[in-house]
Design goal:
By secondary structure, the chain is mainly alpha-helical. Helix content is 48%, strand content 12%. The chain has a single domain, classed as Cytochrome-c3 Hydrogenase, chain B (Orthogonal Bundle), CATH 1.10.645.10. The strands form 2 sheets. The chain has a 3-stranded antiparallel sheet with strand order 1-2-3. It has a 3-stranded antiparallel sheet with strand order 4-5-6. The protein is globular, with a radius of gyration of 21 Å. The N and C termini lie far apart (46 Å). The mean pLDDT is 93.
Amino acid sequence: MGFKELELNMGPQHPSTHGVLHLKVAVDNELVLRVEPNVGYLHRGMEKLWENRTYNQVLPFTDRLDYLAAISNNLGYVLAVEKLMGLEVPKRAQYIRVILTELQRVASHIAWVGFMANDIGAASVLLYAFEEREDILEIFEEYIGARLTINAMRIGGVPHELSDNVIERIKKCLVEIPKKLKDIERLLNGNRIWKHRTVGIGKITAEDAVQFGLTGPCLRATGIKWDIRKNIPYCSYEDFEFDVPLSTNSDVYDRYLLRMEEMRQSLRIIKQGIELPREGEIQAKVPKILKIPAGEVFHSIEAPKGELGFYIKSNGTEKPERVKMKSPSFINMQSLETMSKQDLFADLVAILGSLDIVLGEIDK
């Protein structure tokens, strides 16, 4: 019997595609030949919408992009606006921003490991992960009153100082989360089914990763040490001690191990942050209606999924003339076909999951 290529449609309703994603997959029996992502089902025209809002009104919309990391989206946007204004943010506000965004990184990564394990069949891990994620969401609820679409930044600083109760909740997380991470690792690290589904699956070379513009944990899993918090520090990250985890096998298993270690490094940053004195201003003086002089700027941060950047062009009015977002999920998706070629069709869900995409950020 001769070679026969078969085209399969995966999604957009498929629950394992992490949202409304359509993949056109060409297979030879069980082997993947090509993968063509078809996005746009969730498109809301965010960037065009922002042109018709004031700078402050744009901020809550950023919560809805990567809705598992709303605070990181907030931070990326306000830093771009502040850079365009030439605004100096008080040091205490910068430290609070670091604490909140690192908590958000842990919440995002721990949700990822739960979803990822559930996709492969280890449902108990999802329950372990969400138990600790719940504790972090309660911190956000205490601080700002929201749990998912969290509007925790302001242009010029942050809305509140960290209360005693918030600090106590954070200290509890610093004790409990490492225990839960160890529990998850005991379930997965040496598990032969987990390793069979992840080791050697979804590999990509460092050269290809750079060509595709991969960023975040997926890039660092190829051995390339690029983390904007270290390479181009913002928000006073240079005042904190932490390591950038690296690995070299660049498969699904490595991407899992790397994110687990990143959570520990985030907890290390948070611990340093809450030990700092709670003194100083938390908000720079900013007019209620911003009219930023004409100009343009681009600023990016290290979000949980990779490099998140905002380009803003001002024409001197209270509304931006143009806002363009560089979303890591969208760019990382380019590498899916290269990672999947010659792996089994059944592995495609694991490879896609290892990219840690959110469709709200891809389609925007």
